Amino acid sequence: MSILSFTRAWPALEEQTTIHVVLPNQIDPKNKLQVLWLLHGLGDNGSGWIRKTNLEVLTKYTNLAVITPEMNRSFYMNMANGLPYWDYLTKEVIPEMRKLLPLSTKSSDNFVGGVSMGGFGALKLAFTHPDWFSAVIPMSPVVDLTTLPKMMPDFRTIFDGALPDRYLQHLAEAAPKKHFESCDFII
After folding, report:
1. Confidence at residue 66, expressed as pLDDT on a 0 to 100 scale
2. What is the share, in percent, of the chain residues with pLDDT greater than 90?
3. Cα separation of 126 and 95, whole Å?
4. CA–CA separation, 134 vs 111, rounded Å?
């Protein structure tokens, strides 16, 4: 397994941040890598998946790259009183990693997962871009944003005013259903 950390200035954020990448030791230049986009929870950062799990075993026996971007306390949103993390993730991180690394762009080779806040982000990503992924792995996802004041005193940096009601449900209802026919939700 190889572990890479990309730290660079990103236009959307207007600051430097890091993306952690786990790659298998053997990369066949003829075959693009499958990708697990792994999103961290509220009290963690992208390195948590590397420090606290055994991704080495997963990548040792697969043709899988694991990408864990740093998203701070953003809830994978364009923040009302902060930075545009959603744009950063969808318009910069994913396309840029696909340019820099031999990653497959086929939905059948792309998976998204996350824990807690990252589970929310994984569901949001799957509902807004269902043609990008073939599996979604939300682990203990936050699905009811009205619980944020209890767990995140600074929630107003993300949401100015009332918290959205049934946010993920609305995204799921608006998503084109044809893409979900071949997408697995692993809960």
Report:
1. 96
2. 73
3. 16
4. 6
pLDDT over threshold 70, residue 33: yes
Task: Determine the average pLDDT of the residues in 133-140.
Answer: 95
Rounded Cα distance between 44 and 28, Å, is 33
The first and second tokens of residue 167, run together, are 């946010």
Q: Mean of the pLDDT values across residues 140-148?
A: 93
Helix (H, G, I), strand (E, B) or coil at 67: strand
CA torsion 43-47-53-59 (nearest 10°) is 150
How many residues in total does the chain contain? 187
Task: Give residues with Cβ within 8 angstroms of 139, minimum separation 6.
Answer: 113, 114, 115, 116, 118, 119
What is the arrangement of strands in the sheet containing 135-139, beginning at the earlier edge strand? 2-10, 15-23, 64-69, 34-39, 110-115, 135-139, 184-185
Q: Is the pLDDT of residue 184 over 80?
A: no
- Tell me the backbone φ, ψ of residue 180, rounded to 5 degrees: -80, -10
User: Can you say whether residue 56 is alpha, beta or left, with left for phi > 0 and alpha for psi between -120 and 50 degrees?
Assistant: alpha
The torsion angles phi and psi of 22, rounded to 5 degrees, stand at -115, 125
For the chain, how far is it from start to end, CA to CA, in angstroms? Answer: 27
